[in-house]
Amino acid sequence: MKFSFVAFLLVGCEEEFLVEEPTGSTRNIRQIGEAGEVNPEINGAFMTGVYSTMFSSGTGGTGSHTDFGQRGYDVYGDMLSGDMALSLSTYGWYRAAITEFQAPEDFTQQENYQVWRYYYRVINRSNLVIESILGQPQPETEAETMAIIDELTDNNRHIVAQAFAMRAHSYFYLTQYLVNDVTASWTSPTLPIYTRAGITGNAKSTTEEVYNVIEADLNRAIPLLGDYSRPSKLEIDQSVAQTILAYVLASRKDRWSEVVTLTNDALAGTSASLMDTSTSINGIRGGFNNVGSQGWMWGVDLNEAIGVGLVSWWGQIDLFSYSYAAVGDNKAMDESLYNSMDANDARRGQYLNNPNSSRYLQPFNKFYDSDRVVFGSSQIVKADYVFMRYAEVLLLNIEALAKSGSPAAAKTKLEDFVAARGIDPAYVAALNGQVLLDEIYKQIRLELWGEGKSYLAMKRNEATTVRGTNHLSFVGVPIPYNDERMTFEIPLQEIQDNNEISDQN
């Protein structure tokens, strides 16, 4: 993926837009829309601006070295779920705020602000794209919206579909990170909704109302992307949009048959496939640093033009990058989770299995800069970011089959999956009921470690986390999924700035 100068220029202009009040925003949106009519590349450049938020540092509004886009919040989720252990802390990143739960219990801490600011920034940028294409103000009814979309060029139709999908993606993550229990909070006010660019200060809507926006956006996007051939894996295509909706419905825990259908369609429609057990670009010991991996459905090529460096996911996690993981802020797989792996599981080799080493269970064979030089390059150009993989869609499909009344089909697919990881699948036949669900949940955690999906699985499976002995705090303490320590708070800054929100609950 390459970024043009005009794309970066427009992203810079957008930052000015973000801080304007609604009157100025209306003028800017109209100007952007008019420019888009003259130069079709304008709208595409603004969509690039939406995607750039996912991998740029500071997009959570801070100078923190944990503030680097979507993968930064993936780390938060992996640590809160307990699957990622901070096994050694020298510089203190994540120590108190995340692994000791200070941020989820104190709305004045900036980690709450980062989560809030990042996802609402993506929402606002998506709204800008939508309004620049559909017009400002946006049409009020679905029929009016679709009538305008029907008149769009193919290019603008695909762009607005991606903007709908990205807006939905951000609202979904807000419901996961900011709502203790989606089901219990279904009719309670939880989050403000913004479907207009630049508007601020809305009151909280109910969780149900937020989900209605999410589903409406994705149900628009999915058919609009049916004939879309994306230029790179950075852009959302139909299979990615279907998977996002599958995650949304799975989090509701009452529409599993629809999750089956969506994941079946996503798997059938993607060109990706399951990664093998080799050390090649398509293998589980070699395929996590290159967006070209056959196993990746959604990701970004981190090249010199993007300029990702020390403040990055790689810097925080990878032994072979010039940053924290190499010099004493070790992130490792939870020891209990590692020990739950079958002796023949090929994924055991992804981690340094030497209990006498300070780097015990670091993912040195799963995630690594391809030069494999400890404390190596300070600029990340030989390691990319993954946002979605074929394996996660397959595992969500297996989970949905088991939960929708098709355990036999779930077991057949689970047998094939574990066999592809080097495990004798014979044990699967005897699994039933909760034992089967527990095994599927475990396989999700093992397969997707470090990819930000364990937190989502913990929430929808209503799991209780218990940290293993290689964590620095709360070892052996049972913490349920809906515990206050598992969910961020509406930040102090929002409460101070938004007169319609008076508290963090």
From TrEMBL:
Subcellular location: Cell outer membrane
One Pfam family it belongs to: SusD_RagB
Domain RagB/SusD stretches: 351-464
NAD in keyword set: no
Domain called SusD-like N-terminal: residue spans: 103-230
Entry GO terms, CC: cell outer membrane
Homology family: Belongs to the SusD family.
Name of protein: RagB/SusD family nutrient uptake outer membrane protein
Origin species: Psychroflexus aurantiacus
Lineage: Bacteria, Pseudomonadati, Bacteroidota, Flavobacteriia, Flavobacteriales
